[in-house]
Design a protein that fits this description.
This protein is α+β, with helices and mostly antiparallel strands. The protein has one domain. The chain contains six helices and six strands; from the N terminus they run H-E-H-H-H-E-E-E-H-E-E-H. Strands 1, 2, 3, 4, 5 and 6 form a six-stranded antiparallel sheet that branches. The chain starts with a helix and ends with a helix. The structure holds zinc ion. Zinc ion binds next to loops.
């Protein structure tokens, strides 16, 4: 199941284009997350499919992730973090992994519209899922506060 995150991300970009226009409301993927976890609990999805974080995502999780208070929904370790990716003009094709509030503020001050994605990753078992996306920069002025609020 290589690249599941990116499949989800591409899907999110498509959803984002239609849903994000006209406001800075974020898109919440918690329902999809719960669906994935429920499928695993019912035995429909194997743990290797569920916990398939790619090496780069794991690395980003270790070095750029913000710790979450809740335990990993799969292995229940405290290695659960959130990684924030931002996509847009003049950013790498694979997205910028945002490591600081200052960087986020700077990105949000851009005139071009950007898209931020929050991915939950377990550094222990490799569980990963998109949890939220929202627009940044452009006309979206208040978005940064909400993104910064995620995970402390
Ligand atoms: Zn885990």
């Amino acid at each position: 199941m290589r690249g599941r995150l990116w499949t989800v991300t591409v899907m999110a970009v498509k959803m984002g284009l239609t849903q994000a226009i006209g406001g800075d409301a974020g898109i919440d993927y918690r329902l999809m997350r719960e669906t994935a976890l429920a499928a695993w609990r019912k035995g429909k999805v194997s743990i290797s499919e569920l916990c398939d974080a790619q090496p780069e995502l794991r690395r980003n999780a270790e070095f750029c992730g913000r710790s979450l208070e809740s335990p990993c929904p799969v292995c229940e370790s405290d290695g659960l973090v959130e990684v924030i990716y931002v996509f847009g003009p003049r950013l790498p094709g694979h997205g910028r992994c945002v490591t600081s509030d200052r960087e986020m503020t700077r990105l949000n001050a851009r005139k071009q519209e950007l898209r931020g994605y929050v991915v939950e990753v377990c550094t222990d078992c490799g569980w990963n899922h998109l949890t939220m996306s929202r627009s940044l920069g452009g006309c979206s002025v208040s978005a940064v506060e909400d993104v910064e609020g995620v995970g402390g």
